[in-house]
Write a structure and sequence with these properties.
single chain, alpha/beta, Purple Acid Phosphatase, chain A, domain 2, 5-stranded mixed beta sheet, 9 helices, 36% helix, globular
């Protein structure tokens, strides 16, 4: 019998997108759901997203790891969350502070306690669940990354499969004996498709495989909610949600 692991992440406070993805996943009855971090920053409903993912963790055994923007929201440590920036914009600071204030103390503590990585098994193969890349919450695996850098990053683990996010763009590729599975963003896509991204890892033979999916939801409704929130930069966040492209 096949072993199947559902992968999603980069929800970014978008409750409607998360619910759409989970509704699409439910009939598939995966053995496990893993969530690759970046749960709350930018979107209009961070607390609702945390409650829903904690429910998945507590009742369904979901595995959740911490993303870099979860550090920004939980502890307002912007240098740790965005080390590639010389200066974090006031727009990003205000969004992180707003999300921080929207979460209860126990929800902030839960974000802080999330691990950076987890390891699970898909049949006989190890799967590393991380946010950006093995050993890093901030150094991702974009498709256009220099090949030598990509090899250096993926060989930091013995895992056969790397389930990750961070880039907000879908990516399934074999790199030697490594399978990279990035479902794209569930709630804040940058690859031109505003649908809620998720992926299914399966093992029904000798080698793992990954399939990518998108769940439709009312992105315009979320964009309107963001626009009405009125934080600096919300007009751009709304446009990003609506179009599925990074707009600043």
């Amino acid at each position: 019998m096949a072993t199947r692991i559902c992968v999603l992440g980069d929800v970014h406070g978008n409750e409607l997108a998360l619910e759409a993805a989970l509704m699409a996943i439910a009939p598939e009855r995966p053995d496990l759901i893993v969530v690759t971090g970046d749960l709350v920053l930018h979107g209009p409903r961070p607390a609702a997203v945390v409650r829903r993912i904690r429910e998945l963790e507590q009742t369904g055994g979901a595995i959740v790891v911490q993303g870099n923007t979860d550090i920004a929201v939980a502890d307002l440590d912007f240098s740790a969350a965005f080390p590639w920036l010389e200066e974090v914009s006031p727009q990003d600071r205000s969004a992180a502070e707003w999300a921080h204030d929207a979460l209860a103390d126990d929800e902030l503590d839960w974000l802080r306690r999330l691990p950076a990585e987890r390891r699970v098994h898909l049949g006989k193969h190890m799967v590393l669940v991380c946010h950006a890349s093995p050993g890093s919450q901030t150094s991702g695996l974009p498709a256009d990354l220099d090949p030598s850098v990509t090899v250096e990053r993926v060989t930091r683990t013995d895992a056969r499969v790397i389930a990750c996010g961070h880039t907000h763009a879908t990516d399934v590729r074999e790199l030697g004996r490594k399978l990279i599975c990035n479902p794209g963003s569930c709630g804040y896509s940058f690859d031109g498709d505003p649908g809620a991204g998720w992926a299914m890892l399966s093992m029904d033979g000798t080698e793992p495989r990954a399939e990518l999916f998108r769940a439709s939801y009312d992105a315009q409704l979320v964009a309107t909610e963001l626009s009405e929130r009125g934080l600096p930069g919300d007009v751009y966040r709304a446009a990003t949600v609506r179009t599925g492209r990074s707009i600043r």
